[in-house]
Design brief:
alpha/beta, Rossmann fold, seven-stranded parallel sheet, SDR_fam
Amino acid sequence: MNPVVVVTGASKGIGLAVTTILLKKFHANVVAISRSTTPQLLELKSDALLILECDVSKALTGALQHAANHYQGLDGLVLNAGTLDPLCRITDDTPLSSWKKHFDVNFFSLVTAVNAAIPSLRRSKTGGKVVFVSSGAAQKGIAGWGPYNAGKAAMNSLCRTLAEEEPGVVSVAVRPGMVDTNMQTTLRAVGAFSMTEASYELFVKAHAEGKLVKPEECGHVIAALALRAPKSFSGQFVSWDSAECAPFRKE
């Protein structure tokens, strides 16, 4: 049987690219989990694709259990679902409830997903893989990105801990770079209100000069790692364009 990989946040951007590559290049069975189903995701529909609509902050356990039962197991888990909202300063009037809602999506859903998937990943004949889609923000405190910075840093910590606790499963966090997705559109539209001028202009300039990463470029690395990430990567935070990821990039 072909390997089975779950992708959260699969309806657009990086998640859609990863789903497409897993299906078309690596011939994997894919469970696409997203809050809603887009026309682009529906275009990929086949016997190898199971689409599940799910709010990752509320119903993820059931979705993953259904996925594992449907395919009699799981081999990989790509944790890509996330939100940038709220863009805010630590000391502004953003209510703490907004920070908590952010963490429900960007961090606590990861814990839920791992708990639900790990029994199947332990039994994977190819060796279970968990790929956390992280960000350079995990290491750099970009002004105006308080919740996002903290959530991605917590993600990387979770990845390291999972690698220690589950040595039979490879867990790796990947920095996809500045990717041409809806997040970048949002940043250009409203980022100036909370970011520093220098940081905001960096993103605007990258878009204007055509330097944003294409989702299928970093997505190829993520898809490949979900199937064949080596033990040496476990617990690591790697950049999609690093030398160590060269074997997993699109040829």
